[in-house]
C-alpha cells in the first residue's frame, strides 16, 4: 500500500447531524437531549427553590458544552476534580471553577497559578504546608485564589477532622498573601449510593451538623465562613434543604447511571436516564446469546455491567475488553445481527472518560457531536 493511500485513511466521525440514531457507528456514547434538558431543569429548580447555588461537577462529563448549558440555566459555576481537568473549561471561556480537591506538587501548583490568572478559581486545602505552597505559587505568578478548608464529614477520605486544624488552616489562609479563605468543603461521597432515602437523610443530617459546627467555630473566632459547598446527586435532596449548605456539587444528575438508578428517589426530585452507550450486535452464536461490540473499553464495570435500556428479556451478562455477552430469555425475541441497543452505564463518570465525543440526539435524530475535551486530564 502506498504512503499516499495510507495518508488518506482517517477515522470519520461516528455520525453527522441529521443521521438517524440507529445509523451511528458504534460503540458510541450518546445523549438524549430531551431527558438531559429535563434533568438540568429539575436540579436547577430544586436549588433555586431552596435558595442554594448549583455548582455542577464537571468530573462527571468533562465536556465544556454541557457546562455551558448548565450555566445558562443558572448554575453559579462548575467544579473540577483535578487542576488539569480545568484547563479545557477555562479555554472554553468558563471562568468560575472550584477545584474540589487538594492540589499538591510543584507542577500542579504552577498550573493552578496560571489558571488563577485567567479565571476565578477556588481550591481545597487540609494541610498547612500545602496551603503555604499554594500561597507561594500564587505570589510568584501574581495571582489570587480562594481557599476552602476541606472537612471530613464522615467519608474518611480527605479533610480536616478536628476543631484545632480547621481553625488553624482558616487563620493561616486569612493571613497569607495570594489566598483568601472563603469557607468549607463538606462533601460526603459514600452517602450518594445509600439505597433508601431514610439512610441518606440520616447521614446527610450528621454531615450537615458537623459542617455547621465548624462554621460556628470559625464565626465565633472572628472568621467569616460564607460558603459551605458539597452535596452530590444522591444527597442533593437533603443537602439543599439542610439550611447549612450554600452550594451543591452534583454532577451525575444530568445523565444518571445504573448505580444511581438503584437508589430510592423522592418523586419531587427524580431524574431520567439520558446517557447511553450505543452498541451493535456483532454476533449471534446461539438462540440464547448475542454478542455486542461494547465492552470495557466503551463502558466501565466497577459498579456492575451496563443495563440494556428498553428491552425485555435481555441481560448484559458478561463483559470483556471489546465484547459484551447478552443472554436472551427463552420467551424473548433475540436481536438480529446489526441491530443496535442502548446500554445504561453503571457508572457515568469513568464511562465519559473512555470517549472523545458525545453524540447528542433528539427524537432519534443526531443533532451534533460534543467534544469531551477533558478526557484523560487526570493530573
From TrEMBL:
InterPro entries: Ala_racemase_N, D-amino_acid_metab_enzyme, D-ser_dehydrat-like_dom, D-ser_dehydrat-like_sf, PLP-binding_barrel
Requisite cofactors: Mg(2+); pyridoxal 5'-phosphate
UniProt keywords, alphabetically: Lyase, Pyridoxal phosphate
Gene Ontology molecular function: carbon-carbon lyase activity; D-serine ammonia-lyase activity
Keyword Transferase carried by entry: no
A single BP term in Gene Ontology: D-serine catabolic process
Domain of life the protein comes from: Bacteria
Domain D-serine dehydratase-like: 274-362
Record family assignment: Belongs to the DSD1 family.
Protein name: DSD1 family PLP-dependent enzyme
Organism: Achromobacter sp. HNDS-1
